[in-house]
Amino acid sequence: MNDFTLWKRKVLDAIQDLADLGYQKRAWLGGGEEVASFVETVAALLDDSFFDQFLDEAPRSQTQLDDDSWAAMDQLRKLIYAYEEAETDDAILKDPKWHEVVKQAREVMSLVGSIR
Asked: Tens digit of pLDDT for each residue in 51-89?
């Protein structure tokens, strides 16, 4: 396993959390073993996984991701940066604009899930 495979796995794990509303409800609002917030969930992708650098610098050939996957991840990045955070995690979970982000994260996972 090369460094890019590990990096890809870290990115996809963070995207999976964005794609999973059930996880978000449990982690952001309580009621489950997971503890996180909107900020922590997004930071896991953008900061901890270096998502921008992954999309801009990782050699595609070494990540084994196709053009559709890259395009879907780039669209996810655009939606995340365009999202205007609501006042509370509960409000974010009810926000249709957040649901667009979740939908795009699910699209990414549907494209890359089999090669993960």
From this structure: 999 999 988 888 888 999 999 999 999 999 999 999 999
Decide if 51 contacts 8 (C-beta within 8 A). Answer: no
Residue 11 near residue 54, CB atoms below 8 Å? yes
Q: What is the DSSP string of 43-86?
A: HIIIIIS-HHHHHHHS-HHHHT--HHHHHHHHHHHHHHHH----
AA letter at 36: A
Contact (Cβ atoms closer than 8 angstroms) between residue 58 and residue 74: no
pTM of the model: 0.91
Phi, psi torsion values for 34, nearest 5 degrees: -75, 145
Residue 49 neighbours by CB under 8 Å, 6+ apart: 7, 10, 11, 13, 14
